[in-house]
Amino acid sequence: MSKASNIQKMIDYLKVKECVTRDELATLLNVKKSTISNYVGDINADHHYLIEASTGRYGDTD
User: Fold this and answer.
1) DSSP structure class, residue 31
2) Which CATH architecture has domain 3-46?
3) Which of 32, 48, 56, 62 has its CB 3.0 to 4.6 Å from that of 21, i.e. a possible disulfide?
């Protein structure tokens, strides 16, 4: 899938399920967790949506 279609799929998924892990999104889109972080940065930079990340139990932002 293209980056644009992955980002749209991610936004649509987050509209339905507000709290998810990077692992879950990476599995859904078949990409690496670092790619999910890049997508979040791109989405937040465009100011169309704001996606907040929180630190997980063991210090990672899942």
Assistant:
1) S
2) Orthogonal Bundle (1.10)
3) 62
Neighbours of 7 (CB within 10 A): 19
Identify which has the larger pLDDT, 57 or 59.
57
How many Å apart are CA 62 and CA 47, to the nearest integer?
Answer: 22
Question: Per-residue pLDDT averaged across 29-52, rounded?
Answer: 90
Instruction: Provide the residue ranges of all domains of the chain, joining segments of one domain with +.
Output: 3-46
Residue 57 has pLDDT above 60, yes or no: yes
Mean pLDDT of all residues in 47-51:
80
Angle of CA points 32, 42, 18, to nearest 5° = 75
pTM of the model: 0.81
Structure tokens at 52: 């907040």
Scanning the chain, the segments in alpha helix (DSSP H) are: 3-16, 22-29, 33-46
